[in-house]
Amino acid sequence: MSQAKQRVSVYAPASMGNVSVGFDLLGAALAPVDGEPLGDRVHVEASDGPLSLECVGPYADLLPGNVADNIVLRCARHFLQQQGKPEQGLALTLEKNLPIGSGLGSSASSVVAALAAVNAFFDSPLSPQELLVMMGELEGQISGSVHYDNVAPSYLGGLQLMQQDGARALPGFNAWYWVVAYPGITLSTAKMRALLPTELPLATALRFGQQLASFVDACHRQDEAQALAVLKDVVAEPYRAAHIPGYQAARDKLQALGCPAVGISGSGPTLFAVAGDKTQAEAAARYLQQHYVLNARGLVRICKLDPVGVQVERGAM
Ligand SMILES: Nc1ncnc2c1ncn2[C@@H]1O[C@H](COP(=O)(O)OP(=O)(O)O)[C@@H](O)[C@H]1O
Ligand SMILES: N[C@@H](CCOP(=O)(O)O)C(=O)O
């Protein structure tokens, strides 16, 4: 009697790094309100050959031509080496649903889905904390430095604040909609990081600390007015805004439409706008679709926070 082969599929949602107020320290997982997924999927199944990766999906053609450079394969290799396992017997498929270099945590989504999938395939030898550390290291290999504000929310869901010893969930504001718009052009995270100064003036450092502390306090007390008053980026936006085509004009227009906060998602070019209700979210989405999206690769989604993060499905083939 032949034994059924095991198959594991993992979905990892898009994420928004920084959320304006917490450069490299705060991130949010996104779930479109229309129920359509917005994130990469990785499938792992047993095979008789060497470790392999196939890429499919709407943004697969933008991945590195050499599959060995794909972060999903690098994640699988790293995991197998770390576990003392041979590089064979696994066939991986990446469904590349997120645009690359978009500010939607695309590489992080692939990293989270890949590592969660291989870990689940081998019955979870790594704890969630160990896995999160590995995700941060692998994501850091391609984005220019280790930062957890994409991998942590994609893995754990919700709004995640990085601490010295791991990630802590912050209570978000249930009424808020997060409208995200990706114009359809690529901006490399590493290059957008290279625009930033290596040191900040003392006044900026103080303002950053005060704003982040106020935002965290406001989340815990569910003080919406205080949270919105400090949802501002004094660290990265001043250096990045001019490098994102159309960003400053769109931000001004969205504010005029009544959106209480607008910012760069991750390192851009995606922008986000907070909307207090569905009507305002739809007006912002219409504006962004007409004026911020530049080509057919672009997208606009009205989202809530994804409360779940990674989703693992097991099955037999
Ligand atoms: N599975 C993958 N998903 C996204 N990017 C990948 C993947 N594998 C390799 N890469 C490479 O990693 C880099 C990711 O760029 P980055 O600007 O960090 O994108 P993002 O901000 O969308 O994560 C690109 O050079 C891309 O070719
Ligand atoms: N904190 C990082 C976030 C990068 O996010 P990405 O989605 O653009 O990769 C930064 O601002 O550099």
Automatic annotation (TrEMBL):
<keyword id="KW-0963">Cytoplasm</keyword>
<dbReference type="InterPro" id="IPR013750">
    <property type="entry name" value="GHMP_kinase_C_dom"/>
</dbReference>
<dbReference type="InterPro" id="IPR020568">
    <property type="entry name" value="Ribosomal_Su5_D2-typ_SF"/>
</dbReference>
<feature type="domain" description="GHMP kinase N-terminal">
    <location>
        <begin position="70"/>
        <end position="158"/>
    </location>
</feature>
<comment type="pathway">
    <text>Amino-acid biosynthesis; L-threonine biosynthesis; L-threonine from L-aspartate: step 4/5.</text>
</comment>
<dbReference type="InterPro" id="IPR014721">
    <property type="entry name" value="Ribsml_uS5_D2-typ_fold_subgr"/>
</dbReference>
<protein>
    <recommendedName>
        <fullName>Homoserine kinase</fullName>
        <ecNumber>2.7.1.39</ecNumber>
    </recommendedName>
</protein>
<comment type="similarity">
    <text>Belongs to the GHMP kinase family. Homoserine kinase subfamily.</text>
</comment>
<feature type="binding site">
    <location>
        <begin position="99"/>
        <end position="109"/>
    </location>
    <ligand>
        <name>ATP</name>
    </ligand>
</feature>
<keyword id="KW-0547">Nucleotide-binding</keyword>
<comment type="function">
    <text>Catalyzes the ATP-dependent phosphorylation of L-homoserine to L-homoserine phosphate.</text>
</comment>
<dbReference type="GO" id="GO:0009088">
    <property type="term" value="P:threonine biosynthetic process"/>
</dbReference>
<feature type="domain" description="GHMP kinase C-terminal">
    <location>
        <begin position="236"/>
        <end position="293"/>
    </location>
</feature>
<keyword id="KW-0418">Kinase</keyword>
<dbReference type="GO" id="GO:0004413">
    <property type="term" value="F:homoserine kinase activity"/>
</dbReference>
<dbReference type="InterPro" id="IPR036554">
    <property type="entry name" value="GHMP_kinase_C_sf"/>
</dbReference>
<keyword id="KW-0067">ATP-binding</keyword>
<dbReference type="InterPro" id="IPR006203">
    <property type="entry name" value="GHMP_knse_ATP-bd_CS"/>
</dbReference>
<dbReference type="InterPro" id="IPR000870">
    <property type="entry name" value="Homoserine_kinase"/>
</dbReference>
<dbReference type="Pfam" id="PF00288">
    <property type="entry name" value="GHMP_kinases_N"/>
</dbReference>
<keyword id="KW-0028">Amino-acid biosynthesis</keyword>
<keyword id="KW-0791">Threonine biosynthesis</keyword>
<dbReference type="InterPro" id="IPR006204">
    <property type="entry name" value="GHMP_kinase_N_dom"/>
</dbReference>
<dbReference type="Pfam" id="PF08544">
    <property type="entry name" value="GHMP_kinases_C"/>
</dbReference>
<keyword id="KW-0808">Transferase</keyword>
<dbReference type="GO" id="GO:0005737">
    <property type="term" value="C:cytoplasm"/>
</dbReference>
<dbReference type="GO" id="GO:0005524">
    <property type="term" value="F:ATP binding"/>
</dbReference>
